[in-house]
Amino acid sequence: MNVNVAPSSSINSPATFPVNRRSSVAGLLNPLLLRCRKTKVSVFSSSLDRKIRATRRILAAAALEMKEAEKKTSSPVRIVSIVGEDSVSPLNSAPWLDVMLHTAERLKWVDEEFEMIVFSDNFINSQDETVNRVRNELDRADILVLVAVSKEGSVNWIQTNSQNVPNTICFDSSSALRNKLGGILIETEKRGDIFSSLLPFSQSKKMNESVEIVRTVSEAWERHNADDIRFCLLVIINSYITPVSTLQNLRAKGFSTLNCMVTNCGPQILNCLLDPNCRKALQCLNQCSPVDQVCNYRCIASYESQYLEEFSLCVLQKNNCLELDAKIPEKPYVPPMTEFRGEILSSEIAEDLFVGWLGTLNWSWRVVAGQNPAYDQFPCQYQLYYRGKARGSFWYEPVFQVRTLEDNLVWRRRKYRVKRGKVPGTFQFSVLDNGVVSIESWTIVDVSDDLSWGLFHYHGAARVAGQSYTGAVLVSPDGQYPAEREKERLVSALDRCGIKEWELFNVDNCSCEGPPLGLPEGSSLHSKIEVQEGRTHASV
Which domain holds residue 391? Predict the structure, then answer.
């Protein structure tokens, strides 16, 4: 951005000064200083020169300070993770070392400057330079993450060499290890575990913030999935090191939010507060961390109602009172499949693959397993894809169960508009979900020739709710896992999504009586592929 300074008696032509964090003040003051120099009042010249020189020194010092601050802000976030040798995670019994190495890769999807180096704690017995390397990495680390570290030798070495790391978080580790956030020790009844009960402490503002962060991190870690492990680290980075774009503070922004809500949405607010279900939803959401999508969406799915939809539609979607603007994640890039049964994939065939078994069965697909802990974990997920009555229209309706926070089992159904992407096998989905519009990019990663299974990847955002996300669903006609002979192809498809098989968690398909299925009148199904139970073939 440029600022044009108008001509004056001492400046013959307009001067343009670039404005940025380092030069805006100095740039705007330069014309004034130049004009002062040309003032022919000699009695003040000596005093004026001193003031000019002093001003220059102040500006130079400020510019240098801001330059150093910029360097600090733009430097990489450095994380060191030390994992207990041969320790096993609760993520389908994957080794903790594999889990943390994969987490390091996924941190790069959020920001290329987030660097995590992972070591097994057996390095202390090595005869090479590994010990010195770990020590050097700790000297410049912003965060130390300890997972399942319990050997006495490892604990002693870490205690000696990690004292200068400002943030240390311990999971399932020795009680001798201590947690530290923002340079302050977080005392717990059981050391070595960040989510043990906190001991009494001084109720300073900084400590209260740390307690809230500990609570958020502990709840996420205990859900035992890859997304939430990464989320734990992002919360620490966002709170103590540098802002994370995907973790904007979603709480109300004081008077501006309140004024927006009262001015535009008075009736909707009143109706929500008077309705028991809507009121419970707001109370539930208030207990969640604003950046915890799992907690937030469970509240919404548990207590959804017409009044909650009207409240969200007015406050968020129509008026954006929280002033949020979440973006669809660009990473990972997932390429679509390019052929089906030897034919080049067209958009028509891709749509038919979505339609899947509908017509032969009462649904297109059933979800076997999912990767996203907020949106893929619901029981009894049915997918309905179909062509609409209007020419060129295509729709997706997921039907799924929700076990509410009051332990009731209820059915939910959504309706997405689907548009073709530029590349066959890619699509844009849009849905109004409880008053908030979500836009998602979906990719057909792979579908077996006999339609015995498929893998669909998505990344999306609810812009005005400040939520962005990625995920993938493994589907089959009966909700059962693909046969062992398909394992190699399935693992390859997951790799193209940046997903490990141990990240998936199986959907509970045991008690699925009475799903509210059925299609709108005038719907149509396949256009290129004919599907018969037990076999499929292309009609072109």
Answer: 339-506
